[in-house]
Design brief:
The protein is α+β, with helices and mostly antiparallel strands. The protein has 3 domains: about 1-115, no CATH class; about 155-245, SH3 type barrels, CATH 2.30.30.60; about 250-335, Alpha-Beta Plaits. The N and C termini lie far apart (about 150 Å). It has helices spanning about 1-35, 40-45, 50-65, 70-75, 75-115, 120-150, 150-165, 165-175, 175-190, 235, 265-275, 310-330, 350-365; strands at about 200-205, 205-215, 215-220, 225-230, 240, 250-260, 280-295, 300-305.
Amino acid sequence: MENVLRPLIVLGGSIVLTLVVGWLVDLLLRRADDRHTETPLWGLLRRCRVPLQVALGAALLRGTFRQAEFGVVDEHAAGIGQVLTLVLIGASAWLVVRIATAVVESSYTRYAAATRDPARVRRVRTQVTLIQRIVIAVVGVVAVAAMLLTFPAMRTVGASMLASAGVLGIVAGIAAQSTLGNLFAGLQIAFGDMVRIGDTVVVDGEWGTVEEITLTFLAVRTWDERRITMPVSYFTSKPFENWSRGGVQMTGTVFFHLDHSAPVHEMREKLHDVLRECTAWDGRDWSLAVTDTTPSTMVVRAVVTAKDADDVWTVRCAVREQLIAWLCDRHPYALPRIVTAHAAAPPLEHPEHADLGDGHHRTGRG
């Protein structure tokens, strides 16, 4: 009877204690979250319940499974202990990542709520994202290394690896030159405020919004929902347009190629009417002027403003559409025309040459 009760007590006691501790921690965090609604930290920490229970359960079983004195357990004690150790290391790394993520997200949320400048919020968001990825990468590497060191064979290999660490470091540095370059470029972008998540950029002639920044690549979402993925080193080695740098307000232009008889003054008044009815126009500035002429047309430029890149696109399209419709309806003569005429006859030959030809002709006949 004791051979059955002892394993049940060891296993059941560890599971019950794990569940009770997890429930108590979650209860305390829930009460703290209700009392301190100004910070989301306590609510975010509740996500750590599962990895905490896994780590606690693995630790309890790792320390007590030999007390079960069960035949199968005693026969495979080394393997069971190794598995529980690996689970404990993995769960501990999982718990550390969850805690670090909760702290970082809580700090970002509080900063975003207290800051009214969207550019600063996007900058902090970019930095927070990269910090999270760095923490995950570091914790993951440490956890894998700790798991490998639990195997006796790896400890022996580790001594020889440390002896040749200098050579391996040089080889790894040469082999991973591109990866390390992207890694440092990602840190430079995050803390150098070159480009942020949510910025409107133009890269390789493509207009889009920065959607994701990692340690090695950057994703840009174009206006037609395509994703352009490029290494982050591109933004540290080549020029690009950042329309959100220094503020998100934009100025846009619309060009019209019209006949010289176009009523520019009336167009200017119509442009103002169109802008007053356009909700995307921010009211900062507008203008209309003739900027160039050609033998057949003149170039009329309308300048409009908006609060961001999306709205300036909307305003430009509205101005272009409504002014062209207004010209077609009220002033069709102002639209560019192609003047056609009958082809002119070739000029007659010079009279002197004509007489000379006749004389020669007559002489030849005589």
